[in-house]
Design goal:
Order of helices and strands: HHHHHHHH
Helix content: over 70%
Strand content: under 5%
Distance between the termini: 125 Å
Largest sheet: none
Shape: rod-shaped
Structural class: mainly alpha
Number of strands: 0
Number of helices: 8
């Protein structure tokens, strides 16, 4: 009994985690009936029952050719299998819904963080533009002063050249 459950556990692990094993495993009705799922599902204790139900639900989900009648001929066992499959399906749906909610919340938080980062960037850009404009205004003033000095200097040279005393010195 325990050895059979351990073998089923190993097979189940390989089917879930190894694509090669999954693709090569071709369960037939004869093979499945020889696994005597009824024996494990009809026992009073929970030992092995959940493993068998997980395995059977896995087979029903991923091996489309398997039917309920391939797994058992016992009405009570089939009822337990259907119930377990329904419970696992709803658990999967609830997990998907929860994951979606968490993903939406994380996206909203990321959007807020991104929005704050862009606002900070725009603030820094505006400060840089203000500093550049201030610097440009100061440089324009300095250029205007230099141009004025240059014009005065140039006009002084012209006047000096026209000055007879200056001409005599040259």
């Amino acid at each position: 009994y325990h050895v059979a459950l351990q073998a089923l556990s190993v097979l189940f692990t390989y089917l879930k985690n190894d694509d090669k094993v999954f693709n090569q495993f071709k369960p037939t009705k004869d093979i499945l009936l020889q696994l005597h799922f009824d024996k494990y599902l009809s026992t009073e204790g929970e030992e092995g029952k959940e493993l068998v139900l997980d395995f059977v639900c896995f087979l029903l989900r991923y091996y489309k050719d398997i039917e309920y009648s391939d797994l058992s001929s016992d009405a009570k066992s089939l009822s337990k299998i259907r119930k377990a499959e329904l419970e696992r399906t709803w658990t999967d749906i609830e997990n998907l819904a929860l994951n979606q909610e968490q993903t939406i919340k994380a996206n909203e938080e990321n959007q807020e963080t991104t929005s704050n980062a862009f606002a900070e960037l725009f603030t820094h850009i505006e400060e840089i533009k203000k500093n550049v404009n201030t610097s440009l205004a100061e440089m324009r003033k300095e250029i205007a002063v230099l141009n004025k000095v240059n014009r005065i200097s140039n006009s002084s040279k012209i006047n000096l050249v026209e000055d007879p005393m200056y001409s005599a010195l040259i």
